[in-house]
Amino acid sequence: MKNDLDFCPEFKYQNIMTRITVAKGDGIGPEIMDATLQILNAAGAKLIIDEIAVGEQVYLSGNSSGIAPESWETIRRNKVFLKAPITTPQGGGYKSLNVTTRKALGLFANVRPCASLHPYVHTKHPQMDVVIIRENEEDLYAGIEHQQTDEVVQCLKLISRPGSEKIIRYAFEYARQYGRKKVSCFTKDNIMKQTDGLFHAVFDEVAKEYPDIENEHWIIDIGAAKLADTPENFDVIVLPNLYGDVLSDVAAQITGSVGLAGSANIGEECAMFEAIHGSAPRRAGQNLANPSGLLQGAIQMLNHIGQSEVAERVHNAWLKTIEDGIHTYDIYKEGVSVEKVGTREFAEAIIARLGASPSKLSPVTYKEAKAIEIKPYKRAPRQEKKLVGVDLFVHWDGTDPELLAQELKNIEFGQIKLSMITNRGVKVWPEGFKETFCTDHWRCRFKAPENGTMDAENIVALLSNALTQNIEVIKTENLYYFNGRQGFSLGQGQ
Amino acid sequence: MKNDLDFCPEFKYQNIMTRITVAKGDGIGPEIMDATLQILNAAGAKLIIDEIAVGEQVYLSGNSSGIAPESWETIRRNKVFLKAPITTPQGGGYKSLNVTTRKALGLFANVRPCASLHPYVHTKHPQMDVVIIRENEEDLYAGIEHQQTDEVVQCLKLISRPGSEKIIRYAFEYARQYGRKKVSCFTKDNIMKQTDGLFHAVFDEVAKEYPDIENEHWIIDIGAAKLADTPENFDVIVLPNLYGDVLSDVAAQITGSVGLAGSANIGEECAMFEAIHGSAPRRAGQNLANPSGLLQGAIQMLNHIGQSEVAERVHNAWLKTIEDGIHTYDIYKEGVSVEKVGTREFAEAIIARLGASPSKLSPVTYKEAKAIEIKPYKRAPRQEKKLVGVDLFVHWDGTDPELLAQELKNIEFGQIKLSMITNRGVKVWPEGFKETFCTDHWRCRFKAPENGTMDAENIVALLSNALTQNIEVIKTENLYYFNGRQGFSLGQGQ
């Protein structure tokens, strides 16, 4: 097989070519990347390729991120990155290259199309054709964790307005560009009224700008249940990071073809495209692996760089190949498949079908797809912020909240009074229930009088008083009103 | 129909009876509760019933919790509560009675059996028989939320050692009592190494005490995907609160019979049993509703109070009724069902089959089931705690982290130095990437020198310095080592 990296000599087409970064990765990575590039080349993709090394060898050579600094520079310069799966070595200290890339390059949108290939690939959901658009940067995945007491550890869930606006806008723009009819949003805002409430509120705001696209909101538990049971009722789904992580895997899995799915990670400047599966080292080097997942990533990439005609040709030839029963081992099934082929032969079968369209599966059309541009986020003027109290979190080994309250009353001063103690969110003082189980982690709310305010100085004074009283404050959270709206939740049972 | 509440005159059997609290709730609640109690009575359940009022009328009469204080006392005294669905009125200020009950009474375990009734109820998963055991008190559902800046809101995810131990131990005890073979645990501890890491670590610890029960751990995304696709591979699944909420609904839905499922909420002292569906006001008063969900809850209750022989008789008669095609409107299907019946007739059909067992569906056996007792949590001796730094969270409108770092350097003192700034978890100083999108919410880490410690006084001093420099600190998180183990995560990219 010829070296695919030579297929587009730079000097020849520079003016109409797109320069991309390619990493062949580990395990089956090199084989599926070669197959993918061979198909793109044959289909007339106009690409100049800079290859970089990432993955196992780079990790083991002492680079804990799995990528050399100069390779980072290549990715940042070219802005488009097609990446094969990599192997992260066993043992501590190695950082996930995917997480680092997504976060450092601001790849805020993860886009994962999940479509059934019934009856060629077995699924319980033959009509499924869903695109999951997952917020990729914030939520619990900000990775901010603190052990606070012997018994309690904490992770911060952060939801931001710009983060929510960007991903939701992206979802609606995606729906419009790809002729999708509906965008569904899933949150748990009946419980998390502020964080998920913000995501939902922004969804409702942004949806108004897209009257041509249907929109709906589901509580995540019911939404997830409906998606798992009747995915054919969904079209585009936009989700905060954690829900999106779980449901994009559910959606891919129930198509029956998780090994055939690709994904895009899109930022304002850069973008990364990949297969969703791993590097499968045990299958490596045997001409066995199915290159479809990476090819699906590459099709998203072609649309992203405006080569949608090539994307369409490749996608339809791939569908036709699947439909003709030319299958790699992973989807080969007696009675359904016609021929079991290797990685290279599968790629050749697709190339032989370039220009053809499937007749049983639905062909795709990518009319003038291009990189989706979203209105840049614009920071609003500062809101009027009023400090009305502070939650002091205390490490305390006792069991009777009344005793803790007595100790805390010693640090009150002026009009700043203890108003509530909760344990894991449940109010235990004043007037708790003896049945409430208490850990050693107590949230103690101090507040200015009704309609009053306090100063940041007061918090320093409270902490100072706590020190002299040997009260072990391990964290604080200020309580604010923003433009007159209360910015903190009440205790459960309050 | 006679008044079921009279069926067990108290004076007669007091010594062998269990006193329970019953609430008939709203909508279809009274009908399905009457049907359920009628079946329990006919089956020989030994119950004394105290009825209380909860729900819509109580809310509207001005009680924002939907329950009167004296009813609370009844629930707490009897300790066993069978509850029909209620309607929470529209509009703000009404608190979820379920959440209040669960949290105030310390009902830490939610137990939801999800079994298919193929071919009598349509499902894509005919072999499914899963029990979801969900932690019910902590995690993100502690409801501790704070808006922190104009752009960022936060919810705390709290995972505790006692909370994790109790639910995981419950799951293994449940598996043992009900003859289950395997307990699976799902977490996202590859990302949330401290919080989900604790849950997973406790799972591994507790699992060792149950060598007779198989155990396994899945990362939640893959686990959820497998559960949605091939639920027949799971048996008992134990999960933190949020994951459990989502996956218990997924599991119930894909059995095809979400309207037929019940659940138990178990605490160390009290327990509540219910249907998982709502009060369906539009179906109320028409003798239409299917009482199966509440009946399933009641069966769990009978086992809980040691009347397992009655539970078994009721459950098998119910299976036989389903199998005989005697179906209410919600599951009636031409060609499968034999007779469409109302709520009362369905109950009568079950009563007529008491003593019978299903022949096509698998009959249940509840040998000597009883309330599951778990070893009480024992607080360990205090760990050695070393304060090594503090994260100050700052509201700042700028965009260049370098400028913020300069301002923060002004508040350093002695050996306590600024070591890192992150935005939504990503390191932006020192040496960030320009592509990283920044909100107005900055986490600024101050640390003692390598291997050094700091005092709580130092934090007060830092905050005091911040005040004089007009740096707006909106929250703090102390950084500790516990018994020499680092109790906080690094920045992403650090």
Beginning-to-end CA distance, first to last residue of chain A = 71 Å
Which pair of chains forms the biggest interface, and how many residues does each contribute?
A-B, 112 and 112 residues
The rounded Rg of chain A comes to 27 Å
Main sheet of chain A, how many strands, which sense, barrel?
Answer: 10 strands, mixed
Q: How many DSSP-defined strands of chain A?
A: 20
- From the structure provided, what is the oligomeric state, counting identical versus distinct chains? homodimer
Specify the overall morphology of chain A.
elongated
Which regions of chain A contain 5 or more consecutive residues with pLDDT less than 50?
1-6, 8-14
Strand order of the largest sheet of chain A: 2-1-3-12-11-4-5-10-8-9
Average pLDDT taken over every residue of chain A: 93
Task: Report on the architecture of this protein.
The structure is a homodimer of 494-residue chains. Chain A has a ten-stranded mixed β-sheet, sandwiched between helices. Residues 1-6 and 8-14 of chain A have low confidence and may be disordered. Chain A starts with 9 loop residues before the first helix and ends in an 8-residue tail after the last strand. In chain A, helix 8 (220-229) runs parallel beside helix 9 (241-254), helix 10 packs antiparallel against helix 11 (308-323) and helix 11 (308-323) crosses helix 12. In chain A, strand 11 and strand 12 (271-275) form a beta hairpin. With 494 residues, chain A is of the alpha/beta class. In chain A, 32% of the residues lie in helices and 23% in strands. Chain A is built from 14 helices and 20 strands. Chains A and B meet through helix 5, strand 6, strand 7, helix 6 and helix 7 of A and helix 5, strand 6, strand 7, helix 6 and helix 7 of B. Strand 7 of chain A pairs antiparallel with strand 7 (152-160) of chain B.
